[in-house]
């Protein structure tokens, strides 16, 4: 559709250019008159003399005679081809009024019919046309080309090729008028005698008179209503050319009328419906049976129905079928079958053989055939070419077909998205320092290049999830103020082979256009996994191709390319060695879970963003010691969670209590108030938790106990909260105490109840893993010795022999039994205290450190400094305890084990 419109506007442009060219040519053509005119005349003569001079209007006459049934085409004139040398047999003689124009030898006067048709045509043009114009045309006639066009329009047989002839005729017409003015009128002494045009002298006088008139002012001018159309003064001049008027003006009007008529015809032929498909039944009922069909033309699998227009008009006055150039058509399977069917129909109608409807064959439009044959292929190829050129670099380059190969990297720029600075990244001072060098490289490259130093190409930021790797990369971009392209490794992977590599090419090509810049590839392990490892499991060609492309691109930088590639991963251990070698990711920056100080800094960053009246220094310290092992993302989440809890309680600011509830929620999960335990279950949970609490209180190396609860939370039915602190090394004794404490729940059940429950399975799991690690990784078994057997889940065979396996099993069992005995001894000794704590728990559901001190007396060992600072003696700073417990508590399932640095980390590592 759009191409059709474009074509039509193109034609319109040609038409308007031609019109304006003819208007502009006024002066020039008059000067070059003698030669140009003769050349033009000879040319036109040849051109138009080839035309069939007159075409018969016999059919029309038949229509005018009011014949109800038209004669079939044997008695009708056939439209002649333009090559036809003259009128054919049977053509009606020309109307008598036709003849050479007095204005020009190549012009002809119009017949009465042609003249009327021309007038009719101009009524379709939305403009007022003065009748004087028609008088002129009546007198002067029109160029043969224009007259022919009018004839064709009358017959409804105008073709696009006629447009050119019509425009040429129009040009000819315009020039003819001008020529007439300059040649004939000047020659004649009294030009007005024929065409009422003024002589040069008269024109000069007229001009002067006009100027004078203008000076006389508005009141002396004729009123608007008295003014003729465009200067033809209706008062002063009779209809017809005005002797006072500029001769060119009348011509302009004629040009416009004829031009508009052509435009109308063009519009009609291009945009008006020129045909409609009907069925055989419709044809039969509406036209064939009524004798309106004049001829049928078979074009391939289509039949064009030519109706007798006059007869059709009398029968269907409002039908589109009466419009010139309109045809009905219908589709056929085969020409033979159609002819047979038509014959049968005519037999049924009793049409004598002499009056049968003629059927002719016309070739299908070759253009149409070509379009059908090659159109779809051309469209498809065009689409592919277009799609492949959309991306920079084309199909083979980076864009790829339909943009599949286009990188999905998001681009952030300093002005828009990257507002992160190093000050927003708390903790990880060493990592910041390391990466700061990239900032100075991007800001002042000459400082390094001057000394011949090669700039590091990139850095791998490795660490557990949520520790701020992406944040650090963003901050690097924010500090250096350069564009930042962020993409995830998984976004390179698509199901099509080659897309990943193409996307890598596109990413680097785009980055090169925006140097200096930073590319950040998050989760690079998705594509950067070691190739040797892949081969073991069958390999992945697409991933390897992507990785190879990254390697190639990073090699392709020259030292002056100011592109830094940063990559983030949680699994640096599985990355391909080629990625890590100097010259690619030169720097390996480890970002671990933050230390106590780091957590405090991160808390400070986020506490600034919420409304709290607590003292920030104390609050951040206390929260940091409550959250060992938390990553930056967990801390951000905790602070936000506290703000949400405060908002839910309609508080005006976020208090310490809200923060502690938030931390409990993050560690232990949601409180399950709807979970109702029966009294026996509740009592079991209370004794189980009391066992853990007593162990935590009386074992030297146990982590300080903060709170014991029997309110179900998350997956557990009760929990004891410890503050483990950041321990980076653990002794044998610490591990044994921790294991004994973990077994405290089950042993308490054994001591206080006749039977045991399923609630301790999680504790056993932890103890077993700890003991196994002691034997197989930490060299804490004399029998196994200083060996390390890596626990690799992907491995199908065990890294030790059957014999060693048995020794390991025995050693693990021995260590756990040792811890068990240690715990049982303690709990038997403190049986009374366990009972006291359990009964208090059953009453209050939650016991805090102060309750423990009240019941058991002070802990016999000194607590860690940081614990004493935030949770020691000062009651005013002590946590107020959780909100009241639900009134109908309940039974156990899997009591929450005490947390420890090692265990806490393990659990988190597993969960993610
Ligand atoms: N050191 C930090 N200082 C301030 N905020 C931090 C810090 N570390 C993490 N965060 C917060 O945690 C959010 C997540 O961090 P980020 O996306 O950088 O983690 P990541 O290490 O890239 O995680 P992943 O490995 O899962 O991609 C950050 O948007 C930020 O709010």
UniProtKB/TrEMBL annotation:
The way this protein sits in the membrane is described as: Multi-pass membrane protein
Its keywords, alphabetically, are:
ATP-binding, Hydrolase, Membrane, Metal-binding, Metalloprotease, Mitochondrion, Nucleotide-binding, Protease, Transmembrane, Transmembrane helix, Zinc
Q: Which PANTHER family match?
A: AFG3 LIKE MATRIX AAA PEPTIDASE SUBUNIT 2, ISOFORM A (PTHR43655:SF2), ATP-DEPENDENT PROTEASE (PTHR43655)
Compositional bias segments (type: Basic and acidic residues): 48-61, 208-226
Return the Low complexity bias intervals.
Answer: 18-33, 227-237
Ranges where the AAA+ ATPase domain occurs: 455-595
Q: Which family does it belong to?
A: In the N-terminal section; belongs to the AAA ATPase family. In the C-terminal section; belongs to the peptidase M41 family.
Against PROSITE patterns, the record matches this protein to: AAA
Q: What gene is behind this protein?
A: YTA12
Position of the signal peptide: none
Any matching Pfam family = FtsH_ext
- Which molecular-function annotation in GO is an example for this chain? zinc ion binding
Q: Where is the composition biased (Polar residues)?
A: 71-85
Looking up InterPro entries in the UniProt record yields: AAA+_ATPase, AAA_lid_3, ATP-dep_Zn_Metalloprotease, ATPase_AAA_core, ATPase_AAA_CS, FtsH, P-loop_NTPase, Pept_M41_FtsH_extracell
Supply one GO BP term: protein catabolic process
Where is this chain primarily localised? mitochondrion
Q: Where is the composition biased (Pro residues)?
A: 879-900
CC terms in the record's Gene Ontology section? m-AAA complex
Locate the region Disordered: 1-35, 48-106, 193-251, 866-912
As its record notes, the protein acts as a catalyst of:
ATP + H2O = ADP + phosphate + H(+)
**What protein name is recorded for this chain?**
Mitochondrial inner membrane m-AAA protease component
User: Where is the protein situated, by its record's location annotation?
Assistant: Mitochondrion membrane
């Amino acid at each position: 559709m759009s191409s059709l419109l474009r074509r039509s506007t193109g034609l319109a442009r040609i038409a308007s250019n031609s019109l304006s060219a003819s208007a502009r040519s006024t002066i020039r053509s008059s000067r070059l008159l003698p030669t140009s005119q003769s050349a033009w005349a000879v040319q036109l003569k040849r051109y138009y003399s080839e035309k069939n001079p007159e075409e018969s209007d016999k059919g029309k006459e038949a229509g005018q005679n009011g014949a109800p049934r038209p004669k079939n085409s044997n008695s009708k004139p056939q439209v002649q081809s333009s090559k036809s040398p003259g009128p054919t047999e049977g053509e009606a003689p020309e109307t008598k009024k036709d003849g050479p124009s007095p204005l020009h030898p190549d012009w002809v006067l119009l017949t009465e019919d042609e003249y009327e048709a021309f007038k009719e045509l101009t009524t379709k043009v939305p403009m007022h046309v003065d009748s004087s114009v028609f008088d002129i045309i009546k007198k002067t006639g029109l160029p043969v080309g224009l007259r022919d066009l009018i004839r064709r329009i009358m017959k409804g047989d105008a073709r696009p090729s006629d447009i050119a002839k019509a425009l040429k005729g129009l040009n000819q017409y315009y020039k003819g008028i001008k020529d007439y003015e300059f040649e004939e009128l000047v020659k004649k002494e009294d030009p007005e005698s024929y065409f009422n045009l003024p002589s040069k002298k008269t024109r000069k006088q007229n001009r002067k008179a006009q100027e004078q008139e203008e000076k006389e002012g508005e009141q002396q001018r004729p009123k608007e209503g008295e003014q003729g159309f465009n200067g033809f003064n209706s008062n002063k001049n009779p209809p017809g050319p005005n002797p006072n008027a500029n001769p060119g003006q009348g011509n302009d009007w004629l040009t416009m009328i004829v031009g508009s008529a052509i435009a109308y015809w063009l519009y009609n032929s291009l945009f008006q419906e020129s045909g409609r498909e009907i069925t055989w039944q419709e044809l039969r009922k509406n036209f064939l049976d009524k004798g309106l069909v004049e001829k049928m033309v078979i074009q391939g699998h289509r039949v064009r129905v030519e109706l007798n227009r006059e007869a059709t008009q009398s029968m269907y006055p409002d039908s589109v079928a009466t419009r010139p150039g309109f045809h009905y058509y219908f589709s056929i399977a085969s020409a033979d079958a159609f002819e047979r069917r038509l014959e049968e129909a005519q037999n049924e109608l009793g049409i004598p053989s002499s009056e049968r409807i003629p059927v002719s064959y016309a070739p299908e439009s070759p253009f149409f055939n070509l379009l059908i044959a090659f159109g779809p292929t051309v469209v498809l190829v065009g689409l592919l070419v277009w799609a492949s050129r959309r991306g920079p670099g084309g199909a083979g380059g980076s864009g790829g077909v339909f943009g599949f190969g286009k990188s999905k990297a998001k681009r952030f720029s300093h002005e828009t998205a990257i507002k992160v600075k190093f000050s927003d990244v708390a903790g990880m001072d060493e990592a910041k320092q390391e990466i700061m060098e990239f900032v100075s490289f991007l800001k002042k490259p000459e400082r390094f290049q001057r000394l011949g130093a090669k700039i590091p190409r990139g850095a791998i930021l490795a660490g557990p999830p949520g520790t701020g790797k992406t944040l650090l990369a963003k901050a690097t971009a924010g500090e250096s103020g350069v564009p930042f392209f962020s993409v995830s490794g998984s976004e390179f992977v698509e199901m099509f082979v080659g897309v990943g590599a193409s996307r890598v090419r596109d990413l680097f090509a785009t980055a090169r256009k925006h140097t200096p810049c930073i590319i950040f590839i998050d989760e690079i392990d998705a594509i950067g996994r070691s190739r040797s490892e892949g081969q073991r499991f069958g390999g992945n060609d697409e991933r390897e191709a992507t990785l190879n492309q990254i390697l190639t691109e990073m090699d392709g930088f020259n030292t002056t390319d100011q592109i830094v590639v940063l990559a983030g991963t949680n699994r640096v251990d599985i990355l391909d060695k080629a990625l890590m070698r100097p010259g690619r990711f030169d720097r390996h920056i480890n970002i671990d879970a933050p230390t106590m100080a780091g957590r405090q800094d991160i808390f400070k960053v986020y506490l600034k963003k919420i409304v709290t009246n607590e003292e920030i220094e104390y609050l951040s310290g206390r929260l940091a010691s409550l959250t060992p092992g938390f990553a930056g993302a967990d801390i951000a989440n905790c602070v936000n969670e506290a703000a949400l809890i405060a908002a839910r309680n309609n508080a005006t600011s976020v208090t310490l209590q809200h923060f502690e509830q938030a931390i409990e929620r993050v560690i232990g999960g949601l409180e399950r108030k709807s979970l109702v335990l029966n009294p026996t279950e509740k009592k079991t949970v209370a004794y189980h938790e009391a066992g853990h609490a007593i162990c935590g209180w009386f074992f030297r190396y146990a982590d300080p106990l903060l709170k014991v609860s029997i309110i179900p939370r998350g997956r557990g039915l009760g929990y004891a909260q410890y503050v483990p602190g950041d321990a980076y090394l653990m002794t044998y004794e610490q591990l044994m105490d921790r294991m004994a404490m973990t077994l405290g729940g089950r042993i308490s059940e054994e001591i206080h109840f006749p039977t045991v429950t399923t609630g301790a399975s999680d504790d056993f799991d932890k103890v077993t893993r700890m003991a196994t690690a002691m034997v197989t990784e930490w060299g804490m078994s004399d029998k196994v010795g200083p060996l390390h057997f890596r626990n690799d889940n992907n491995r199908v065979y065990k890294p030790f022999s059957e014999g060693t396996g048995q020794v390991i099993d025995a050693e693990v069992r021995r260590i756990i039994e040792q811890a068990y005995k240690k715990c049982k001894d303690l709990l038997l000794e403190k049986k009374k205290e366990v009972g006291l704590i359990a009964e208090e728990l059953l009453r209050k559901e939650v016991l805090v450190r102060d309750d423990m001190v009240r019941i058991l007396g002070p802990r016999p060992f000194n607590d860690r400094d940081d614990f004493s600072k935030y949770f020691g003696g000062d009651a005013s700073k002590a946590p107020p305890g959780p909100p009241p417990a639900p009134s109908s508590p309940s039974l156990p399932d899997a009591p929450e084990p005490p947390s420890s640095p090692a265990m806490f980390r393990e659990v988190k590592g597993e969960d993610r």
